[in-house]
Design goal:
With 321 residues, the protein is α/β, with parallel strands linked by helices. The protein folds into three domains: 156 residues, no CATH class; 77 residues, no CATH class; 58 residues, no CATH class. The longest helix has 28 residues.
Length: 321
């Protein structure tokens, strides 16, 4: 139900679930507010203070933290220098509310601006910044927009984020009483979130504290889907296990990698440029693997240096090898 107070329209939004108590037995009711037309600039932005920007996980919205992602330090640093250089950066997306200006999209920008203010000894509450106001009427709309903003930005959402979003879509479907007449399947939710159904099932079991299982069968799948998966497992179990020459496979993979590296360096020997391009293909899910490969390459380099030195010392003056 919407009410009007002065130049600001106020809407009370129903919570996705009962919000946690914030003061004894008192439960807060989040209210969304909207800027008056006279506050909007020609580009549709408004001015707010930096200190008024509130991360979703600091609000009373249940499960809001799941719609957020970890800050990427490289991205924060790049934005920090871009702001200092006076470059044009899209304003953060915020939803005005009784709990402050909720950051729907722009946590990296918020962090970069915080660092600049701290560096200059400025108070966040005294710094006016430009933001783009959103006009949501429910908490669900806001969380959905926050999920999608993470998926659409340049960093690329991780498999974990997408799997959680798929589970949230299924939870919302259940809360609505299954408007499609039957529960949203894991396959469909995974497709909407841009990940595999297997990743969604693994995330569901992980959040539920369940042990890993080899069978990815879910009660929300149709009987036909379950029968197909059971048949697939039965067929796999009936086939003799293939013996793989692990060492040969590793050697082949290593040769392919070094061949590719040689080709890359032949095209562009600038390490910094290569690192910047390469980083676009690294996610939180592959970061550990890339680090392990880097350490292995360092070990190869050190071993090669030792071998070269040994050969030099073995080569005595006046002798031939």
């Amino acid at each position: 139900m919407a009410t009007t107070k002065g130049s600001t329209r106020v809407t009370e939004t129903p919570a996705i679930a009962t919000p946690p108590p914030t003061n004894g037995n008192t439960v807060t009711t989040l209210k969304f507010t909207y800027p008056a037309k006279k506050e909007l600039s020609s580009s549709g932005t408004i001015q707010v203070t930096l200190g008024s920007l509130v991360p979703l996980d600091e609000t009373s919205i249940p499960n809001a933290a799941l719609a957020m992602r970890e800050l990427d330090e490289d991205n924060v640093t790049a934005l920090y220098y871009a702001y200092k250089a006076g470059k044009t950066i899209p304003p953060p997306l915020v939803q005005q509310s009784s709990e402050g200006n909720l950051v729907v999209g722009g946590m990296h920008r918020r962090e970069a601006l915080h660092r600049i203010a701290d560096e200059q000894g400025l108070n966040w509450d005294d710094q006016s910044i430009e933001v783009k106001p959103t006009h949501f009427t429910t908490q669900r709309e806001l969380l959905n927009a926050a999920y999608l903003d993470n998926f659409g930005n340049g960093l690329g959402a991780s498999r974990t984020s997408r799997s959680r979003y798929a589970l949230q879509l299924m939870a919302w479907d259940a809360e609505d009483g299954y408007p499609g007449e039957k529960p949203l399947s894991i396959h469909k939710a995974a497709e909407m979130a841009g990940c595999s159904h297997v990743a969604v099932i693994k995330m569901r079991d992980k959040l539920a504290g369940k042990p890993k299982t080899s069978k990815m069968v879910d009660t929300l799948l149709s009987p036909e889907d379950n029968a197909e998966i059971e048949a697939m497992h039965a067929e796999q179990a009936s086939q003799p296990e293939l013996v793989t020459d692990t060492q040969a496979a590793l050697n082949k993979a290593a040769k392919t990698m070094f061949t590719s590296l040689a080709q890359v360096f032949a095209l562009n020997p600038n390490v910094n440029e290569l690192a910047t391009l390469f980083r676009n293909f690294i996610t939180k899910d592959t970061e550990k693997e890339v680090t392990a490969i880097s350490l292995a390459m360092q070990a190869v380099t050190m071993n090669r240096t030792v071998v070269t030195m040994n050969r030099t010392f073995e080569q005595r003056p006046g002798t031939t090898k």
